Automatic annotation (TrEMBL):
Binding residue positions for shikimate: 25-27, 72, 97, 112, 233, 261
SUPFAM superfamilies, A to Z: Aminoacid dehydrogenase-like, N-terminal domain, NAD(P)-binding Rossmann-fold domains
Gene assigned in the entry: aroE
Source organism per UniProt: Paenibacillus xylanivorans
Entry protein name: Shikimate dehydrogenase (NADP(+))
Pathway it works in: Metabolic intermediate biosynthesis; chorismate biosynthesis; chorismate from D-erythrose 4-phosphate and phosphoenolpyruvate: step 4/7; Aromatic compound metabolism; 3,4-dihydroxybenzoate biosynthesis; 3-dehydroquinate from D-quinate (NAD(+) route)
Length: 287
């Protein structure tokens, strides 16, 4: 009689993204391509979760044995109350976009800002230390991005926003956490501040589809040779980036932020390096 092999079949790693709506999300295409390229037995599902079902859905992560999920609009803030541990950066940003199930304990992270900075360094400006950075906008995305930028020890970060009070409040809040020289102001300061900026980052929605002719600031105010980055990835090249490129600036679009926030999440779940180029290709193919 031949000896029988005693191998236990392993279950796939379950992952997903919770949001409302969710059908448009490019995360499933990106992560399923990543799982396949990494040779991992796993699946990443779009999970339509309405706000009134969020608590049950989060409990379902443990009940169903999910390894983790991403959380997107409108749940990023509300989800925090249902988690066991919130990572320090997510607490400071006030939003969670990635949950890891560590043997029944749910840990919340925010990979948006860290992902943005990894993308900026890999794709446009390798060294951020000592740089003078201008951030246009003071909303949710700006908060995560500025937190992660501050960890890179730039010389200073100036936040300019259409509603000046929001920029002033955000700067003073981040300064109070010891994050360095961060100031806030209104767009009337743009000419003076942009004249000496090394890096200009648009975190506003100005220029996003369908308002593709909008710019957050007059591109002529940006110094030739500065790096200009835009969080918007629809369109892939905004008018701000197009005009900055014509003025001799290094430009960086928003697709990389989306890819790298996913890459950092993937690494939290799988514990192996994310196949970033496969992820980028999958997203571009899904447009
Ligand atoms: P948010 O919290 O609603 O903040 C919006 C910001 O944009 C505010 O500072 C607002 O200024 C400003 N703004 C909106 N319309 C404007 C206009 N026409 N002119 C000038 N300023 C304007 O939104 P958010 O979550 O921070 O998202 C902002 C942008 O980041 C969006 O375009 C989004 O697509 C992009 N984003 C990209 C990624 C990625 O993965 N690449 C991730 C997250 C977000 P006021 O305070 O004056 O209203």
């Amino acid at each position: 009689m031949s000896e029988q092999k005693n191998s236990t079949p392993s279950l796939p790693v379950l992952l997903g993204v919770m949001g409302d709506p969710i059908a448009h999300s490019k995360s499933p295409a990106m992560h399923n391509a990543a799982l396949q390229a990494a040779g991992a037995n796993g699946i990443y599902m779009p999970l339509h979760v309405r706000p009134e079902q969020l608590e049950s859905a989060i409990r379902g992560i443990v009940a169903l044995g999910y390894r983790g999920v991403n959380v997107t609009i409108p749940h990023k803030e509300q989800v925090m109350q249902y988690l066991d541990v919130i990572d320090e950066s997510a607490r400071l940003i006030g939003a969670v976009n990635t949950i890891v199930n560590e043997e029944g304990k749910l840990i919340g992270y925010n990979t948006d800002g860290i992902g943005y900075v990894r993308s900026l360094k890999e794709e446009a400006v390798p060294e951020l230390a000592g740089k003078r950075i201008v951030v246009l906008g003071a909303g949710g995305a700006a908060r995560g991005v500025i937190y992660a930028l501050a960890l890179e020890k730039p010389e200073r970060i100036s936040i300019l926003n259409r509603t000046a009070d929001r920029a002033v409040a955000l700067a003073s809040d981040l300064r109070a956490h010891g994050l360095g020289d961060i100031t806030g102001g209104g767009m009337e300061e743009a000419a003076a501040v942009l004249a000496s900026a090394d890096i200009v980052i648009n975190t506003t929605a100005a220029g996003m589809h369908p308002h593709v002719d909008d710019v957050p600031v007059d591109p002529a105010l940006i110094r030739a040779g500065a790096a200009v980055s835009d969080l918007i990835y629809n369109p892939l090249e905004t008018r701000l980036l197009r005009e900055a490129k014509q003025r001799g600036c290094i430009v960086h679009g928003g697709l990389g932020m989306f890819i790298y926030q996913g890459a950092v999440a993937f690494e939290h779940w799988l514990g192996i390096p994310a196949p970033v180029e496969t992820m980028r290709r999958a997203v571009l193919d899904s447009f």
